[in-house]
Amino acid sequence: MTRCCHFLAITLLTLGIPEAISSWTSLAHLRPRVDDGMQTRAVTELLRRLLGERASDFVVSVDGALGRAEGDLDSYELSSTKDDKVSVTGNTGVAAANGVYSYLKEFCGCHVSWSGDQLRVPRPLPRIPEVIKVSSPNRFRYYQNVCTQSYSTVWWDWPRWEREIDWMALNGINLPLAFTGQEAIWQEVYLSLGLNQSDIDAFFTGPAFLAWGRMANLHSWGGPLSQNWHEKQTSLQKKILDRMRSLGMIPVLPAFAGHVPAAITKLFPQANVTQLGPWSHFDCNYSCSYLLDPRDPLFLNIGKLFLKQQHLKFGTDHIYSADTFNEMIPASSDPVYLSAVSKAVFSSMTAVDPKAVWLMQGWLFVHQPDFWKPPQIKALLLGVPLGRMIVLDLFAESTPIYISTKSFYGQPFIWCMLHNFGGNTGLFGTVESINQGPFDALHFPNSTMVGTGLAPEGIEQNAVLYELMSELAWRKEPVNLLKWVSAYATRRYASSSENVAAAWRLLFQSVYNCTIPFYRNHNRSPLVRRPSLRMDTNIWYNRSHLYEAWRLLYLEAKSLASSSETFRHDLVDVTREALQLLVSDYYQEITTYFANRQLTELMTAGGVLLYDILPELDNLLSSEGHFLLGVWLERARAMALEEKEADLYEFNARNQITLWGPNGNILDYANKEWGGLVMDYYAQRWGLFISTLIKCIDQGVPFKEEAFNRAVFQEENAFVTSRRKYPVEPVGDTYEIASRIFVKYYPQAVWNLRKV
């Protein structure tokens, strides 16, 4: 029995459920599928992609026996060789890759992130004075959220996926979600049951909304899916899984959760099918999906058909994700019913794969606490044998569920940082919580914690949080946050400047350290929300810290902006955040002037906002490659074979980040601050809002929000249906634009602080 399994066995005995121990220890079979030699080659190839010819300075090997000494926990060893190379041995490819990245960070001052790399590797490599041995305290490091598949990865090609999987391995991820291409399998299953293609086309959503189709929140919106889409996604998924497995990862594949096309009710009229209620402001044209009762014999049949076909196409690693009640109220709160549901879902897995383990998101317990009381949670969880379900405590940095459920009533769980909603841009973090939370969970009485996880709805933002969380997964105790972030700044820019280190310490003490209980960060700035007279301008941090960090970064911009892509990115990001605060200031002025009927002052403030701040922000964002609307849209179009299909994908891409539905159903949930989007979407709304306020004063009439909303919807929808092209490469000089903005607006930002 491994160390981790032995710990949980003691826990289960303490809870009085010794019969679960044998089930729990079966988690030991969740391990790499490929041999040590293949994993060694995969890590070596990763280093060639990352370091080029300097990869030969590392001697990499994977030896599965290494982990056995640590109870099968991922482990690595680092040492220097006589010929100035670095020897890296890991018990898995992931462990070895993480060992290399640890060395690159700690000894070479290097950095790898979504927003750029800093890989100035010294020659020769710095020597390691004595052998370094590191083991992760937990079995698993989980990655992704079911929504990430739509908010971030939906338009990715293989090169982008290859880069991401490399990043996963370097950061020690060994349990990634792998949902790509499943609709092709579902199409085969439903055709084999007798449905026709039109039935299936009415079931699948468009690409940008697949996450919610998979969870029964939506159907058909943004669809249909083409056969080209199915073929490309199937091919892509095979590459994704091959690469993940070659590095020693354990991909999590989907399983049947009970959601079925409406046509099932006609084809199988005796089946026990319930139509669910509407979801999140959608009506039944696109919502009110159908749920097949897991106790119905047809449920087992469909679940088996899907898993068998998935095994044929993609293989299996014996762990499956299924979410039956994501943001949906079950048909009954009776614990007997809920237990039967989870038992049936799990049975559909084990009927095909006797070693199946169910990975379930715990978001439902956070989202609908009025329904999910202890008896309901316990019934759902314990319908599955203990140890055969792993629960993702999805929002543990803010709303941990493991405490109130006494470690999920004995089921293993993973402590996750959710962090991001909707893929929003905007600086945000809860560094104190994520620094302490995983260790509190690990030492919680009778803890069944088996890992940590990164579970954002969208990625490619706030890279610092994900590097910190990834490092904590390999540590035995919290870090000194200010010391850690100072070293991070040095690595990220290859700069020993005290100004940049001080800037990052200020950010960690303010915008990255939200301590408001249960806070959910959807970028609420008036900048990215439909204008009204009652907008939220509250923030969770001290503005002066953000402005001082902005100033300190600006002081180093002349020397670093030309040499460091990561610095350019962060200069744009922090300047963007500062301008976002200034937009709030101008909004408050505009509404005050309107209330006091001060027309001249309103026109002046509105003019500055419309004709300087927003255009300058758009120029700034357009100068940096990670903030371009054009990239998002062109990636969407590139997935198509013909113009009509490309137009549909572009519609999906535009709608998701704006209206999110036909009528603004989840308006601005996935807002982004991107070059092109600021001027052609947000600025158009602000222009209409300000002109409406001016007209109201001029004509002596009140502002009518409903009438304005109808009018502004036309502007919003015009953007969604437009096919205007946007740059896919940066335009303009970031330093020059950022300097111009700083000189104009930093003094005003500081002055505004005095008025608060």
TrEMBL record:
EC number of this enzyme: 3.2.1.50
Gene3D superfamilies noted in UniProt: Chitobiase/beta-hexosaminidase domain 2-like, Glycosidases, N-acetyl-b-d-glucoasminidase
A GO term for molecular function: alpha-N-acetylglucosaminidase activity
The UniProt record lists the keyword tRNA-binding: no
Reactions accelerated catalytically: Hydrolysis of terminal non-reducing N-acetyl-D-glucosamine residues in N-acetyl-alpha-D-glucosaminides
One Gene Ontology biological process: system development
InterPro entries: Hex-like_dom2, NAGLU, NAGLU_C, NAGLU_N, NAGLU_tim-barrel
Keywords of the record: Glycoprotein, Glycosidase, Hydrolase, Signal
Any Pfam family the entry gives: NAGLU_C
Family per similarity comment: Belongs to the glycosyl hydrolase 89 family.
Official protein name in the record: Alpha-N-acetylglucosaminidase
Provenance organism: Polypterus senegalus (Senegal bichir)
The organism's taxonomic lineage, starting at the top: Eukaryota, Metazoa, Chordata, Craniata, Vertebrata
